[in-house]
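Page header: ASSEMBLY MODEL / two components / 543 residues total.
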Amino acid sequence: MQQQCEGEVNDFIRPIPSTIDLYEEGDLGSLDITKIGEYLEEKTHIPFRTRGDIYKRFSKKRIEEVSKELARIKVRDPGKRFVSGVPLQGEVDYEKRRIGDPSWKIFGILYEGVHYQKIISDLVFKGGVVFKYCLLLFTNQLFGTWDRNNNRYHARASLYGFPNLISITGLVEAPAKPKEFYLKKQIGTPVEWLKEEYQGTFLDHGDLRTTDVLKGYAMQALLFHITGDPFCEDRDCRFFNSHWQEEVLHSQLDSQYEFCPRHEKILKGLRERQ
Amino acid sequence: MAVKKHIFTPVSEKEVTRAIVDAFARQFIEYVESDCLIIGGGPSGLMVGRDIALKGVKTLIVERNNYIGGGFWIGGYLMNKVTVREPGQKILEELGIPYEKVVKGLYVADGPHACSKLIAAACDAGVKFANMTIFDDVVMREGNRVCGAVVNWTPVNALPREITCVDPIALEAKFVVDSTGHDACVVKKLEERGLLKTAGFGAMWVEQSEDLVVEHTGEAHPGLIVTGMAVATTYGLPRMGPTFGGMLLSGRKGAQVILQKMNPVVAKR
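Prediction written out in full:
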C-alpha cells in the first residue's frame, strides 16, 4: 500500500480538478474575475478559465425553463420554510429579463440557495456532476439557506458545492455590520447617513476591496471541491468562516498570514502534485 | 339709507345645487367609459394618470377617501417630509417641487408641497377624479380580461348594511390600474376568483425594494396594470419604507406600459 505524507491522509477526498471555470451572473461591478483566477492558479497551480455570462451558451427554450424555475424559488418570508409555488407570469418575465441581460444590476430578491444551486447545476452539468472541473459562479443575486438553529433563512455570501455559488451582494448583506449600525437604523437613521458614519468598517456595494476579499472565498470553494471542508477555525486564515463584516475584513485583508500552517501545507501539497 | 352692496353676485340655493349636480353628472356620464381607470389616487396612481393624460388618454382616478394623494402628504411616522432617492428627484424637478439634498443620492421635500403639485399636475394634464368612491369588484370580458370596475360611494361601505343596502355601479375602461398600495384591492379581487395568486409583501428593505417594484411594474393580468406598493404585494417583494421615488417611477413605468399597449407607435416617439 502506498504511503501517504502526513497531512494528506484525509485531505483530498475528490480528484484534483484539471481546470477552474469562473462564470458570471449579472453586473459584478468592479469585480476582477481574471485577478481571482490568477490568484487561484498561483496558489494551487491549477489553471483557470474565465467563462463569462453563465447563460450565454443556452438556447432560448432552456432560458425560458430556467426563468420559470428561478421564479419558483423566491423566499417570501425568511421566517418560514420555503414552499415552491406557481409563479405569476410577471415573475417569470422578470427572471427572463434578468438572466437575458448580463449587465443586470437589480437585486433584492432572496432566492432559496440550495434550489438555486440545483438549477445552475442542472444547467451546466446536464448529464451529472463532473469533478474534473471546479465551477465557480460569481453572481450579483442574493440567496439564503435555512438555519435550523433559529428557524429562519439567512442570506449567504457563498454556497459551496457543484457548482460553487459566490454572491457579491451576499458578501455585503450576509455578514453582520457593526451592532451600532443596526441599532441606529432601527431608530430611523437613514442608511445613507450610517454608511457615511461607518465607512470602511464593512464592505459596501461596489467596494473596491471586493476582488481581494473574494480571492479568499474562491479559495474556500476550491478547498471544498477537493477536501469537502472549505473552512478553518483560525480567524487569521483566509479559510475562516466569517459571520461579521469585521471578521471578513480581518481574515481576508488584515490577518497575520494568508493561510494557517495546516492549510499552507495542504496548498503546498496541491502545488507539488500539479 | 344707502343699500349695502354685495361682494358676491346673488344666486339662489337651488341654482347652486343645480350647478353641482349638473357638472358632476356631465362629467360622470362622460367618464362611465374611459381609456384608463385608475383605482387609488396615491403617488403612483397620480403619476400614471398625469403621464397618460398628457398623451391624450381619457383617464379617471377612483379614490376611496375625500382627499387625493394617499400617503404622499406625509413621510414616515406622521412627519410631513417626504424622501426620494436618486433618480426620483428628477420627477420632483419636472413637477416643480422644491427639494433638498440630504446625503449623496437622498433628497427630501415638503410633503404638502410635493403632494399638491403632483395632484395639480394630474389635474392640469386632464385627469378626472371620482373621490369618496370605493372599488368593489372588477368588470371582466372574454378571456377574463379586466375591462372596468364596480364602484360604490365610500360611506355606503362604512355604514351598517341595514341602512345602506345600495347596489354599486360599473365603470368601463380599456385598462384598469391597481394603485391601491399594499392592499392591492384589484389584484386581491382576481385572487378571490382564482385568477392569480399574490404572495404578500416581505420584510422592509428600502434600498432594494424600490428597484424591484419599478422593475415588476406592468400588466399582471390581461387589462390590469399594477403600480406602486400594490406591486410589492402582488409579487411578494420587500416592503417599501417611507421613501417615494419608487412610487413615482413605478407610476411612470405603468404609464409607459399602458401607452405602449394602447398605441405602440405613439409610445415610441
